[in-house]
Specification:
The chain has 193 residues and is an alpha+beta fold. The chain contains eight helices and eight strands. The chain binds iron/sulfur cluster (2 copies).
């Protein structure tokens, strides 16, 4: 079990975060993946993350050799529709994971264009890509966002904001509810004018 961020000094926090450059791990940040007080409402922490996260478009998540990107049935159908391809043709760019009984795009991703530095199937890209660098929450920390430490922009994001998350950790449900209430009131006031 990794020590909690709050018991590490700033330099040690940054060293730990930077290990993501070479060592695969997810950083659990105390931003709500799920609001304990309101289990129906799961989007607040995620929305906040996307509001502040800035992808640099470095493309590392697309062209780095690795385990490959898993595709579900809907991903496959959407990509094939977008490209006018058969499933068989798409599968020729995938490998079959016998353990997980799933198809994974070979890596580097065949749809990454290193010249144009971009995804050539962007509107139809797999769901996992639309969510990256967020990963599903870690089992041991189901209420915190899990961010892939491999993404350089995610590492910088965590370094810049970690102190704030730690301070807010025990209070985030209340803080976010208050923020939402204030925003609703502001919108109501503006609407009343
Ligand atoms: S690794 Fe991170 S910063 Fe680079 S393209 Fe992917 S999401 Fe963006
Ligand atoms: S499908 Fe697009 S966004 Fe996803 S890994 Fe490939 S190039 Fe990157």
């Amino acid at each position: 079990m990794r020590p909690h961020w709050s018991v590490l000094g700033r330099e040690e926090q940054h060293r730990t975060i930077d290990r993501g450059e070479t060592e695969p791990f997810d950083i659990a940040i105390p931003l709500p993946a799920k609001d304990r007080a309101d289990p129906e409402n799961t989007s607040q922490g995620v929305d906040l993350f996307w509001e502040w996260f800035r992808c640099t478009g470095c493309g590392r998540c697309c062209y780095t050799p690795g385990a490959g990107l898993y595709l579900d049935r809907e991903d496959m159908e959407r990509i094939c529709r977008h490209l006018g391809w058969s499933i068989k043709r798409l599968k020729s760019l995938c490998r079959r994971d016998k353990v997980l009984k799933a198809w994974a795009l070979k890596q580097p991703c065949p749809f990454y264009d290193p010249e144009g530095k971009g995804c050539t199937i962007y509107p139809a890209r797999p769901l996992t890509c639309t969510r990256y660098p967020l990963h599903p929450p870690l089992k041991e920390m189901p209420y915190n966002l899990a961010v892939d430490a491999f993404c350089p922009a995610a590492r910088e994001f965590v370094k810049d904001t970690l102190g704030w998350w730690i301070v807010c950790e025990t209070n985030w449900a209340r803080i976010l509810r208050d923020m939402e209430k204030e925003e609703n009131e502001r919108n109501r006031d503006l609407g009343g004018r």
